[in-house]
Specification:
The protein is α/β, with parallel strands linked by helices. It has helices at residues 62-75, 107-115, 124-137, 157-160, 166-172, 181-195, 197-200, 248-256, 260-269, 272-277, 283-291, 295-319, 329-334, 336-344, 355-359, 381-393, and strands at 3-10, 14-22, 26-34, 41-47, 52-57, 85-92, 103-104, 142-147, 202-208, 212-218, 221-225, 324-328, 373-376. The relative contact order is 0.11.
Length: 394
Amino acid sequence: MIEKILAINAGSSSLKFKLYLMPDEQVMIHGMVDRIGHQDAVFTYQTTSGDKHKTTEAVSDHTAATELVIKALNESGVIKDKSEIVGVGHRVSHGGSYYTQSVEINDDVAKRISELSVLSPLHNPANLLGIQAFEKLLPEAREVAVFDTSFHSTMPPKAYTYALPYRYIEKYGIRRYGFHGQSHQYIYSVVRERFGEQTADKLISCHLGNGASICAIKDGKSVNTSMGFTPLAGLVMGTRSGDIDPEILPFLEEKEHLNSEDVRDMLNHESGVLGISGVSNDIRDVLKAESEGNQRAKLALDVYVHQIQEFIGAYTTDLGGLKVLSFTAGVGEHSAPIRARVCQGLAYLGIKIDDAKNEANDIEIQTADSKVKVVVIPTDEELIIARETAKVIG
């Protein structure tokens, strides 16, 4: 039975959408509302027939953004009535210990998503706004939450347990949860389809964007990942610190007279590549500054690349070897210089990349004699959301 399913990825000031015909996985329309809450919000969409649309207008909130999306679906002709949409799948950042798989949303699920906002303050509140907006405008559609954390529920205790007093682990569910689950899950599905299960059985997926994480995937299951209890942990990111010595926090609180909110804001918004370079959170800007002789920009890139290399080395141990190294997301898909620098430090694993293929952003960028396949795969989190939604609503 052919069904229309809408995949939604809501941010604090943006809303991405794709409408799928399932189970054919055919995209009928995709688009985005950006700068929600501003007078000059930008709304873009494109249909599979090639029709493109772009407007700049006031969009007050997520409900107004949702109204624009529904209007576009009707005006583009991909639906004649909104009742044709049987399911709406929502990306939700943090499912905590409650959800190890995607679930249909009810009042209890919505409440828990809200409660977990303390662990994902940049994402869960925005995800919930998207859910509430579509519940109002598509009351007949079944709403499904697809959690970033679910894919990582297969990690063994040795990988997700923190060395804290166990009473806190039990009381508050403190553990490594991991994020970008839909992206890592999609990358595995593409690698398996392209190269077969025997090659995909030892895969390291590098999701490198403004937010970044690395995942070790063994036989299709996440066995370790760099983000942790919250999306702040792991790699150096655009504005996020990643892993640091925890004693730094009380030290700064005492020396700079900071409270917990000050520290949280500093770690999430003022740190990472931006914090070290003082230039930007955008890798392209930092690479440009480095080429102009900016030493802090060079240091930021050195730290950024070095930490990626550290995680790849550690995760190769977790996998007992490495067959495929994958790059995805904004930096991973488009920054040949970063991919080259990362791989230059991995020659001990038998990794060699072809400079011409790397510069061209080819799917496979390794040399013929490389012992490890190195691939560049554009991620498609919305497709995973649609698949999960179809599975849940049956």
